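2024-03-11 09:14:02 DEBUG pipeline.ingest accepted 1 chain
2024-03-11 09:14:02 DEBUG pipeline.ingest length=353
2024-03-11 09:14:03 DEBUG pipeline.predict start
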Amino acid sequence: MPWTIVVTLATCSLFGQERYDTRNMSTPMMPGYNASSRIAVRRDWDVYSTASFIYWNPLQENLELGIVSDTAVTTHTINGNVVDQDFSYTPGFRIGMGMNLHRDGWDIFGQYTWLRNTDTASASVDPNGTQVIIPFRGIPATTNPQYHSASETWKLSMDLADFELARAFYVGTELTVRPFCGVRGAWIRQYMTTLYIDEASGILAENNIKVEQLSHSWALGPRAGLYANWMLGQRIRMYGNGAGDLLFTQYTTLGFHQEGTTSAHQPVNNQFDITQHYLHYIRTHLELEFGFGWGMYLDNHLWHIDVSAGYGFQVYFDQNMFRNFTDDSSSFSHLPNGNLYIHGMTFNFRFDY
């Protein structure tokens, strides 16, 4: 009995000491608990708006126009060069709006991105020479079509809508991070028109052909990423952003139209129309951006402005769904796919009020 009483009192004292120590240690540890690094102005709503000018260069795999061969295919020898698409930079914009929540430093943010782009490619050879153009587009004839001029136009339309829930906090005294999770919606439309012309109609047996293709898709899925800022001093920072998403993607329409012509503007009865609807896939998108920024408070913390500029890289896996044909029968067609890549400059302005 005496030993039982001693053990009981010691156990009660130990548990009481644990509760006492834990309760007292929580107060001095709170200032070091992921202190918020978000921009905080002296306003009731504490909202902010963003505007960005983007100057991006979209480029996509498997958009080559054809081969300029030094000799006709009938000689069973091909010695030439591939004609690639001439990808170029194009302007666009991005706008967004966010709000700081009155709960542990969290914030919500939504943004919309608009981009339109047109790229072209062309090639021509002397009709009286030995060079010919071997096409990559359209349904090929069994007699090996060969042409003397070709042109291609690729148009891309992209609309992206993002929503984020995030919390910005310090990691040390000079580094801040803002992990986020959210949702992305994407609407991507592609159009391609290709024209192959035989300018010496009596020499080669093939007529001119015009090929039109389109791809319409929408996508929705989760998105997550991380924003990081390294403070360099004098309100200047270096930043790095990374994000990725996994999107349920529906290709509402894949279209292929080909018509033969006796000249560039006179169609004849040589037409193919192939349409496919409602294909469902899961597509992945990754992006990285690096740059520099500067910001400051105004009017005793009633406002805050921030400007930044960076260079980014993006990849949309297997976005190219233009159909290719390997024979004069549609049963020998296939979807080669191809990634859509985007890189370029982004100039940002943010205003907290």
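2024-03-11 09:14:41 DEBUG pipeline.report The two ends are 71 Å apart (CA to CA).
2024-03-11 09:14:41 DEBUG pipeline.predict end
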